[in-house]
């Protein structure tokens, strides 16, 4: 059932002698080194979505880094950063040197969870596929890395939802709100979060 991963792995080979490590800022480096890493983040985000039954997110950004850099962060179903317990798995996936190693790591994470592409019975066809929301910033390298993220998501049979050019907090909000609404296919509506309301009022009535 992992044939699609092996095929996609060939399209996104590892950057030579590159051993990245996932941290608070996700992965961040020269953009030319990152396609394979972002592809594997797509796989991890999809696996996380499958195991939780909720949306996750991928943000392609390098914040204040120079324009030649880029990066990727994974958004957990809660709308928070990827849980720390999965950061070593993100690093393991990024450093796999073969498709077999990649599949072994994913198999341990997925356990007995069926892949969406394998769910073809009449009892499961009505269920929406797990979603991974993908956002990006204004960097010229974004298109290549978004394509890599999407390839990873779809290799596990999940649905990639392209959110366009958004800020990192916006993507976190979209993931959280979509899950709170318990409908992965809904378009997020204005949040009842009091902090959002307060922020709106603050713009109307700035402090003296």
Set down the secondary structure blueprint.
Blueprint: H1 3-11, E1 27-30, H2 35-52, E2 56-60, E3 69-75, H3 87-95, H4 99-110, E4 131-136, H5 142-155, E5 159-165, H6 168-180, H7 194-204
Q: In words, what does this structure look like?
A:
The protein is an alpha/beta fold and about 210 residues long. The chain has helices spanning about 5-10, 35-50, 85-95, 100-110, 140-155, 170-180, 195-205, and strands spanning about 25-30, 55-60, 70-75, 130-135, 160-165. The chain has seven helices and five strands, in the order αβαββααβαβαα. Helix 2 crosses helix 3 and helix 2 (about 35-50) runs parallel beside helix 4. The radius of gyration is 17 Å and the shape is globular.
Q: What descriptors fit this protein?
A:
208 residues; alpha/beta; 5-stranded mixed β-sheet; 5 strands
- Largest sheet, if any? 5 strands, mixed
- The rough form would be described as globular
Strand order of the largest sheet: 1-3-2-4-5
- How many angstroms does the end-to-end distance come to? 62 Å
Uncertain regions spanning at least 5 consecutive residues:
118-126, 184-208
**Based on DSSP secondary structure assignment, what is the total number of beta strands?**
5
In short:
The chain is of the alpha/beta class and 208 residues long. The protein has helices at residues 3-11, 35-52, 87-95, 99-110, 142-155, 168-180, 194-204, and strands at residues 27-30, 56-60, 69-75, 131-136, 159-165.
């Amino acid at each position: 059932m992992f044939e699609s991963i092996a095929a996609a792995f060939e399209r996104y080979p590892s950057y030579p002698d590159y051993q990245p490590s996932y941290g608070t800022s996700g992965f961040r480096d020269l953009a030319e080194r990152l396609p394979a890493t972002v592809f594997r983040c797509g796989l991890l985000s999809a696996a996380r979505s499958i195991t939780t039954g909720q949306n996750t997110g991928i943000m392609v950004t390098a914040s204040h880094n120079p324009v030649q850099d880029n990066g990727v962060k994974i958004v957990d179903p809660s709308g928070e950063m990827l849980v720390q317990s999965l950061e070593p798995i993100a690093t393991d996936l990024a450093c796999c040197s073969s498709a077999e190693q990649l599949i072994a790591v994913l198999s341990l994470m997925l356990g007995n969870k069926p892949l969406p592409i394998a769910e073809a019975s009449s009892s499961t066809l009505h269920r929406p596929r797990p979603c991974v929301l993908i956002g990006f910033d204004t960097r010229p390298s974004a298109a290549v890395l978004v394509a890599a993220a999407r390839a990873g998501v779809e290799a596990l049979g999940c649905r990639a939802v392209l959110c366009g050019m958004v800020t990192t907090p916006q993507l976190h909000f979209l993931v959280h709100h979509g899950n709170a609404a318990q409908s992965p296919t809904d378009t997020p509506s204005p949040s009842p979060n009091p902090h959002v309301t307060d922020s709106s009022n603050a713009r109307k009535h700035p402090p003296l």
